[in-house]
Write a structure and sequence with these properties.
Blueprint (H helix, E strand, L loop, with lengths): L1 E5 L6 E14 L2 H7 L4 E6 L5 E4 L2 E7 L5 E7 L5 E6 L8 E3 L13 E3 L26
Parallel strand pairs: 2-9
Antiparallel strand pairs: 1-2, 2-3, 2-4, 3-8, 5-6, 6-7, 7-8
Amino acid sequence: MKVDGKCLCGAVTYEAEVDTSKIVICHCTDCQTNSGTAYGVVAAVVDGTFKLRTGETRTFVKVADSGNRRRLEFCATCGTRIVAKPAEGEEGLISLRIGTATQRDQLAPIAQLWSRSARAWVQDLSELPSFETVPGAKS
């Protein structure tokens, strides 16, 4: 599926093709820390299709517990994480943070990874009160 998207400030825009059979929720503690929340949601990018249209990214190389090195690419202005790529000279999957994609409503996860690290409360949020906006906030 072809997608396009941008960072929070709009400085970085991109286009790519993602494999909709490879969209996952990742509960690893690195994704929790990097996202600032309970998990990350990523889609596998089809080889050679990720194209930065505008803006500049900064890179941080993360070494996983497995020893794999991943280049995490962020907007140089607002810090929004866009993609993770194999470290320079290494092979591997490119993964796109689907929250940055315009088509995010169409990118439903098909599996959850690293569930042993999942926060206990994240499995069932249906019992929590739900509001369309922030209660008491001015529209």
